[in-house]
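Hi R.,

Quick one: here's the diguanylate cyclase sequence you asked about.
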Amino acid sequence: MEVDSNVYQTLLESTKAIPWKIDWKSMRFSYIGPQIQDLLGWSADSWIGVEDWANRMHPDDRDRVVNFCVAQSQNGVDHEADYRALTSNGSYVWIRDVVHVKRNGSGEVESLVGFMFDITERKQNEEQLLALQKELETLSFRDGLTGVANRRMFDAVFSKEWTAAQHSGEPLSLVLLDIDFFKQYNDRYGHIRGDDCLKRVAQALDGAGKRPHDFFARYGGEEFVMVLPQTDAAAARQMAERCRILVLSERIAHEDAVGSKVLSISLGAGTITPGSSDAPDTFFHLVDQRLYAAKMQGRNRVVFTDAVAQP
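And here's the predicted structure, written out as tokens:
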């Protein structure tokens, strides 16, 4: 059964998709659906050639999309392209062009036919999803209680800075610290006060006058860690001592602390210029031993180690 061409045109023009056709040799539109005016505000008869299509595209998308579509069309390959199309009022709408390449009997490209689809809502949903994913990713690297970076983030940063120090030959310092008598603090004041205590300590130390590339995180429980790139032993000692004094200056009452009635911290610190045979886990364990030594020596103090890189 033959169908009148007017029927085809009526069907095409009743859809939300916008049909179009371009003659390959002249690069001019031989047809574009009147729906284009409803979507973009430009009348159908204003779409003369591919220049109108290209010029009504967001400048940031133009080169990428035009070069891609021309290359695919020259090779006779059907393709799709997403871009932002300019409306007559100066705003932009996301468009997906689905393109079919028609060849003549000799196999030469004769024309391009396709459909434009309004995908603005889809793109907005995708952008919202990406923003949500970024937010979740950020949250996954943050400690839920204190708001500072967490153990997962520390592992990533420490590994990166270790590799950087190996390549640059610059010293890398690490400070581990632990709240003194924290179990006794929770036993006396309760876990809600204990959580508030952790938050106060984290906030005080996160603002300890660090340089932009220094890093602070909650390692776990009442233990925190600082990574200090390009920091020699003297500067690392100063930073550790500054942290100890900062916590004391918070004057957090702790009636069950031995020898003092305010909250304090113990710290282990170390500096290394890592060589190719050094391992970050070994260095971390060494600094952790110095933290343990600070606890054993009476707490509220810094114990430091100079780690010597292996040749």
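The chain has two domains: 5-124, 141-306.

Cheers,
M.
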